[in-house]
């Protein structure tokens, strides 16, 4: 398996294909279907349902494609300036709205004989297109910003001051800040998966774009160990040890997940098992 470098700030945690097929396309298709059924801007009266479906799916699809391509180009240019995402979104939205205004004007003239190819007509149409663009892109953009960690969470209440002689509380491992909020902080294991690290917690799993060894380095201070070139486990997550007939060890986590132990880590794992008192049994 190959490993990649750590993602820069503002880079997505979820693979592009999953974001595109699982979030963006369903949102755009849903918006097109709703607009086809409602038939705004006179399309309900002038067009049949089949025509409205073709009309809105084509426009939303073209607008979505333009938005995606311009966003990809802009994020490449602003790779080192993730804080500029607001200006980037405004610029992309206005660019897409301008392109789609001209497209809709030509389509309306051809399809329904409506002439918007005048300054006032284009200005009026531009307002409508901007509104539709904002409504259609709201959910996909929000999901994308959340995936990139660009949406600030609620402000935490200030902690009470510590006495002067009190020891400072231990710092949370830096890696935990990368976890999506829905996964919580009860880390069970890490698993290298192609270009990503799959994170397992009590609440589920997700992919993070980084190398396993970098993730382990960011977990300094958390009790755990690497047990395989592709696996790391938290000590508190291990419920027992299972020995296979061929002598290989498998760690059984408290959520039932089984993690293989490679030969190169066998001595360290056995020592940790004795120290922690992990129950050992023979597996099939």
UniProtKB/TrEMBL annotation:
Residues annotated as transmembrane: 20-41, 53-75, 87-105, 125-143
Tagged with keyword Transmembrane helix: yes
Alphabetical keyword list: Membrane, Transmembrane, Transmembrane helix
Record domain HTH LytTR-type: where: 185-275
Superkingdom to which the source organism belongs: Bacteria
GO molecular function: DNA binding; phosphorelay response regulator activity
Gene3D superfamilies for this protein: LytTr DNA-binding domain (2.40.50.1020)
PROSITE patterns the UniProt entry points to: HTH_LYTTR (PS50930)
PANTHER family cross-referenced by the UniProt entry: STAGE 0 SPORULATION PROTEIN A HOMOLOG, TRANSCRIPTIONAL REGULATOR-RELATED
Listed name of the protein: LytTR family transcriptional regulator
Organism per entry: Azospirillum brasilense
Upper classification of the organism: Bacteria, Pseudomonadati, Pseudomonadota, Alphaproteobacteria, Rhodospirillales
């Amino acid at each position: 398996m190959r490993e990649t470098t750590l993602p820069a700030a503002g880079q997505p945690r979820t693979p592009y294909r999953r974001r595109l097929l699982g979030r963006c396309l369903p949102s755009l298709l849903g918006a097109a279907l709703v607009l086809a059924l409602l038939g705004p801007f006179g399309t309900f009266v002038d067009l049949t349902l089949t025509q409205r479906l073709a009309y809105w799916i084509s426009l939303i699809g073209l607008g979505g494609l333009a938005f995606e391509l311009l966003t990809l180009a802009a994020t490449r240019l602003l790779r080192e300036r993730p804080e500029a995402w607001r200006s980037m979104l405004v610029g992309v939205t206005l660019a897409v709205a301008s392109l789609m205004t001209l497209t809709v004007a030509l389509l309306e003239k051809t399809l329904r004989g409506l002439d918007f190819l005048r300054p006032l007509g284009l200005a009026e149409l531009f307002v409508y297109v901007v509104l539709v663009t904002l409504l259609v892109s709201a959910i996909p953009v929000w999901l994308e910003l959340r995936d990139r960690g660009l949406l600030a969470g609620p402000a935490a209440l200030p902690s009470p001051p510590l006495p002067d002689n009190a020891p400072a509380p231990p710092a949370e491992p830096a890696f935990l800040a990368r976890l999506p909020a829905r996964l919580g902080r009860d880390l069970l294991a890490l698993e290298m998966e192609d270009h990503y690290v799959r994170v397992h917690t009590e609440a589920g799993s997700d992919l993070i774009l980084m190398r396993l060894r970098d993730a382990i380095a960011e977990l300094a201070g958390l009790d755990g160990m690497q047990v395989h070139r592709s696996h790391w486990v938290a000590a508190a997550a291990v419920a027992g040890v299972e020995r296979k007939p061929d002598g290989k060890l498998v760690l059984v986590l408290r959520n039932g997940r089984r993690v293989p132990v490679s030969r190169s880590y066998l001595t360290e794992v056995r020592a940790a098992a004795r120290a922690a008192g992990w129950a050992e049994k023979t597996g099939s």
